[in-house]
Amino acid sequence: MNIRADLREIARQLDLIGFDVGDYRVSVYRALIMLAVGIVVVIAGRVMTALVRRSFRRISRLDATQQLLGEKLVSIAVWVGLVLAGVDFLGISLTALTVFSGAFGLAVGFGLQKTFGNLISGIILLMDRSIKPGDVIAVGSGSDKTVGQVNKIGIRAVSVTTRDRIEFLIPNELLMTSQVENWSFSSRDVRVKVPVGVAYGSDIEKVEKVLLEAALSLKRVLNRNPPQVWLHGFGSNAIEFEVQMWIDDPEEGLGNLRSDLLKAVWKAFVANGIEVPYAQHDVHIREWPKELAEIARIAESQAPEAIEKSGANDLGIKPKPKAKARKGKLN
């Protein structure tokens, strides 16, 4: 009894330290009560959301997207209910908050607009199932394109992990308003194109056969969609082919697949005697400059043997014939 009496006395003394706002008392005691209720609400919310998450993951008849959508909706309802219960426990009348409704609405309109926009966008993404956890998506264009696997769809942003193990947090609203490539929306099959050039004079049928064998030797290439080789064009230095392959695991990356194919093609070309072209240009000189011709003439008169060794004929200069030695005596 003494302990209860002491606690009541301490509460009464703490309640004296404060002031009144209309019919509501603001004191140190009520501030401590509000702090304790807030802590209880946060702890209870986290525990209940964890239980909700675990419960939805046990429902096997729902796919990953439906489980995540149900988890988000129930979690929001749990948090709203706990906050309202805490307000009711503290004895705060909701009608008293009407004074602050205008300021709160203004704050929502300016400060929390993006937050609520991302929240609604995340729920819409989960409802229409346009983007699901595990999908491989590409956001942006050109050099700014981000390609990765969707790891998590949160309340504010979508977590996308790239092949470099870099995790991007893309706002949900951005995914709703911008163009997004979903490589696994209706099917996980993705076609990969790899250009290959061979030297002119190569046997086209042989090249096609070698490229097909190199593509089929890769484990990730699908057999149900066999690879194809197309003659793409006649370039300035090479006959251009294009190897088209189908895979069903784009999250494993595309650059490593291109690398494996090119290494297999290189080994096959070496084994079959197929040449890989290199850049070359034919230069035709219609007339040598006068200054160069004069220099060549002077060099020829001073050192004809050096001109012959350096290829004077390429400059259009004919070396003078050597004088033949005469037999006989000099007069």
How would you characterize the overall build of this protein?
This protein is of the alpha+beta class. The chain has helices spanning 2-16, 28-57, 64-89, 101-110, 113-128, 172-177, 204-216, 255-272, 290-302, 304-310, and strands spanning 18-21, 24-27, 136-139, 146-153, 157-161, 167-171, 180-182, 190-198, 228-234, 239-247. Strand 9 (228-234) and strand 10 form a beta hairpin.
Record field, number of beta strands: 10
Low-pLDDT runs of 5+ residues are 327-331
Main-sheet strand order equals 6-5-4-3-7
Q: Globular, elongated, flat, extended or rod-shaped: what is the shape?
A: elongated
Number of helices: 10
Structural category: alpha+beta
What is the CA-atom radius of gyration, in angstroms?
40 Å
Overall pLDDT level? 78
List keywords for this structure.
single chain; 331 residues; alpha+beta; three-stranded antiparallel β-sheet; 47% helix
Write the layout of secondary structure elements.
Layout (H helix, E strand, L loop, with lengths): L1 H15 L1 E4 L2 E4 H30 L6 H26 L11 H10 L2 H16 L7 E4 L6 E8 L3 E5 L5 E5 H6 L2 E3 L7 E9 L5 H13 L11 E7 L4 E9 L7 H18 L17 H13 L1 H7 L21
Antiparallel strand pairs: 1-2, 3-4, 3-7, 4-5, 5-6, 8-10, 9-10
Helix pairs in contact: 2-3, 7-8, 9-10
Short overview:
47% of the residues lie in helices and 18% in strands.
